[in-house]
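We now fix the convention by which a protein and its fold are recorded. Here is one such record, which you should read through line by line:

>
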Amino acid sequence: MTASPEIAPSVHESNGRKPMEPEEFQQVGAAIEAAVAETIVGQREAIRGVLICLAAGGHALLEGVPGLGKTTMARAFAGALDLSQRRVQFTPDLMPADITGTTVLTQGEGEVRGQLHFEPGPLFANLVVADEINRAAPRTQSALLEAMQEGRVTIANTTHLLPEPFFVLATQNPIELYGTYPLPEAELDRFLLKLRFEFPPIEELNAMVLRTTGDREPVTEKVADASTLLRMNALVRTVPIAAHVVDYASRIVLALHPDGAEASERVREYVRLGPSPRGVQTLCMAGRVSALMAGRLVVAVEDIRAVAAASLRHRLLLSFDAERQAISADEVIAETLQQIPREAR
């Protein structure tokens, strides 16, 4: 195991931590990506997307058919980060208390025997891998919702704060597969990005087989810790974003609403519900990380465009006609990006 990259100290202090410099951010981000790439073959866009979520302090949803490496990628990020980690296999019979924790009677002796105390569940970790999240019933999904949005859980009228940082890396199979439940729109909206796993080309498929069927299992090197991630989160929020770039992000979201003034005929016909205001917030936060990873200190329109599909695809509710004609959210978003002018009006 190696330590986090050595960085020149800063003269400023923030919440007891040395604030991260942009050069350090790019270095640490590249180190995390490289460590994960030692385990995962291909899927570069998904790797960058998860890194964006971690750096921005958000949650990631990984979607793809079984066998493409979604859970392996989640474990690889867990291995690259020196954090407390828990993995939960979501099943239809999983109950809310199974993930949040429950109040139990002590088994000690004397005065403490028979007293109630709280036993934390697997959500009380820095990094929670929620495997096949769309196989859990709605009650359990509701319990996860508060944790993702508020960073806390409420049990028996008592609120328990979750550790910082707190990230959920969730995997799901396409909802048309047997034994899955569509995630509620409110829960989907809490994921910063939704990342798709595509079937690999033959070169990557060959490399995957050679890497995973040998006598040695790939081991992900630890390159960052909780303090490093919190400093990354703090730096992201300080990156300046010009008013015309925010306006561009807002116009994209408004154009994806069927009743919006700039909505295309395709949007009016195939979109039932457009993104919430979190869509604009996500575009700007993810765009900040994209700029930092490119070595820039100002968010550009191109950064917004680069993260648009992953930021918005799970925030679009398509019509039945769109589903019947196999029209995807990515197609609608791509068409909207072509129509929205990049320059401010």
